[in-house]
Amino acid sequence: MSNAFGVSEFDSIPDARPDDDGLIELPLVPLRGIVIFPHVITPITTRNPQALAAIQFGLTGHRTVAGFAMRDPSHAVQRVEDLYEFGTELALSQVARGGEDQRSVLALGKRRLQLVSIKQTEPILIARARPIPERRTRSEKLLSATQRVKQLLQHVADLSPTIPEEVLDHILNARDAGLVADLTASALLLSLEERQRLLGTESVEARMNDLIAALAQEIQVLELRDEINVQVQQEMDRSQREMYLREQMRVIQNELGEGDIFQQEINEVREQIIAANLPGEIHEKALKELSRLSIIPPMAPEVGIIRTYIDWLVGLPWTQRTDDNLDVRHAQEVLDAEHYGLPKVKDRILEYIAVRKLAASKMKSPILCFVGPPGVGKTSLSKSIARALGREFVRVSLGGVRDEAEIRGHRRTYIGAMPGRIIQTMRRAGTSNPVFVLDEIDKLGMDFRGDPAAALLEVLDPEQNHAFSDHYLEVPYDLSQVLFITTGNDLDPIPAALIDRLEIIEFTGYTEEEKVAISRRFLIPNQIEAHGLNGAGVRFEPSALHTIIREYTYEGGVRNLDREIANVCRKIARLVAEEKQYGRRIGSRKLLDFLGPPLYTNRRAHKQDTVGLATGLVWTYDGGDIALIEVSVLPGKGSMLMTGQLGDVMQESAQAALSYMRSRAVDFDVPSDDFENYDVHIHLPEGAVPKEGPSAGITLATAIISAFTERKVRSTFAMTGEITLRGKVLAVGGVKEKVLAARRAGIRQVILPSENKKDLVDIPQEALDDLNFHFVDGMQQVIDHVLLPAPPERQRDIQRREEEHDEKDDQESKPESKKSSKKKTES
Ligand code: ADP
């Protein structure tokens, strides 16, 4: 051991000799906070006079001293209780003299001592103590405990640099368990109490176990510290890296003469905010966001979010507005110059302008709702209104909007949040008082994500819309200066609460004459202009227009008509461009070249009076149409079969019609067992999808009665009307569209419920002139008009008689084999 530390001086100092009681008496060196283990050399530096005297005595006398730790180092030692019970016999070696009152020596621990008493002699204290001999045991258990201690110590040394390498080597190479235990105890950072306990434990094995526990705990602490260190290190690495990169960026920017881009950007945004001249509250809000922007790191994801938000605040028209042109005559000129007809609508707009002029801004803006088939000019008239008033025009479609957030926006906390369509469209408008068209209000959806109709109510409510709240925008936006116009094809799907807000203005389909006029005055000049054919002298003959309208289009409005005219113009433009010959006058015969074969030649009414085939008039989403209803009566079991475009309401109408027929079977001369022995098959062939409704009632009844009575239906008639079980005929909607559809289809006789007489005022005179109207209250009147007299004998009866005859002839008759279905209708 002395070799290891190279201090041979210690070896020459002998152990004290015990007296008869086995005790030794030694000068006492009170130790301050240290424990010196046997075999271990420890430096002692002290100013304690008691200790200085004892050390002096030991050094000069070349003898050992006793080292015991003080329990309270602030007091001089007087009694045995002032010291810990266990200490060490020490051999001392002089190192240096640090002046009069301080001294440093090296002390080598020799034997364990147990203190018995102290005695005061001048100037030193004498300790009386019992030496504890080191028992050398060698058990398997101790061996493996020693091995374990060495392993653990190695681990501790790996984790912590506090154990000097030479000490570690010394311990790992030591063979004696007691030596290993004492060196290890000394090398570990243990508390004074723990050290005292290890010193006082006689059994090596017990000390080893204590050390194993202490080492294991030390390892845990060190590992934890390591982990924390790694985290701290990583964190530091990251922020250092960032700092480094940012610094580099700054250098690069400076190098490029760009200065601090981010700061520059913030300055720009500030200028934008100031230039935007926002109302006070909005201005404040924008600046507040800007100050948030300036304190977050330029690369943080919030930067984009805040920038976009400020952009929205700055980009919205808060105060910008156009001055209304309230000159009624000017407005009338604009409306007439751009749209043919539509007197009711135009009048309403002119009234609005007049009142506006008189009552200034006291008047709340009406919310108009233009309802009618596609292509009747709802949108384009709205544009003209904007032009007449000198306002901006914007439109947004509500078709398929199901989520409230589409109207009102998402809160900014959502990723990719945006304002709703209303605010987006206002930004596009650029002024706070545009004409704002909300298209397809009847196609507004509704589902679990909230009710867009409710949000729309707020938009359209003059009481609320001066402070419309968009989730994204957060600040209220004033919509009260906007002139809203909503459009739709059909009123029914619009929620009642919304309808209450709207001033409904109906647009109906055009007659052929109106379409020709619209083509001549608007569509053709526009398309000629659009195709660069101004100087080409192209002329559409009336016959061509009529043919396009009748055979190439089938609609209430003029959208397809416009498209076909465009098609013709495009073909001509090509001929002109290729410098080919072309005829300037476009007659109906040329259409085949330009447009190909006509699409709708077969869509006219059938020409033959037929059993079981009646012509109804229906309302469809693109206007009116005729609909043929076909009924066959086939051998069967009295059931009703329906095919084609029949919705629930129409099926109910069919039931009602059949019930009516059965209740009057006697009057119609139909044997009542017919209803048990035959099936009724109702079919609504091809064509536009009619809107679900009861208005096909009398048509269904007519076809059914005809099929049973085999009285033919006059093909010159078309009809519409709801039927009750008792055969009363009730009023229906969409009369104008239906009447025009009848006329388009070349039908002259129209049957309408009497209650609908009033609706004829909307129908242009030329259409009225072409048609004969028959108003009815009950089904019998319909029958009288449209059914021809009964045949002398019904086909069905003839057939039945023949079958009975066959059965008599043929003994092997099979009653159910009435397979000979016969179709009584032809289209
Ligand atoms: P809607 O909005 O009713 O579906 P649009 O406004 O889109 O119909 O009209 C379709 C086309 O028909 C437009 O080019 C429009 O200018 C034209 N049009 C419709 N009605 C008229 C009319 N009365 N006078 C002039 N052009 C019309």
Describe this structure in words.
- There is one protein chain.
- This protein has 827 residues and is α/β, with parallel strands linked by helices.
- The chain contains 28 helices and 24 strands.
- The strands form seven sheets. The chain has a five-stranded mixed beta barrel with strand order 1-3-4-5-6. Strands 8-9-10-7-11 form a five-stranded parallel β-sheet, sandwiched between helices. The chain has a four-stranded mixed β-sheet with strand order 15-16-18-17.
- Helix 3 (140-159) packs antiparallel against helix 4.
- The longest helix is centred in the first third of the chain and has 52 residues, at 204-255.
- The termini are far apart.
- The model is unreliable at 1-7 and 816-827 (pLDDT under 50).
- Adenosine-5'-diphosphate binds at residues 339-342, 374-380, 487, 518, 522, 557-559, 562.
- Residues 339-342, 374-380, 487, 518, 522, 557-559, 562 line the site of adenosine-5'-diphosphate (ADP).
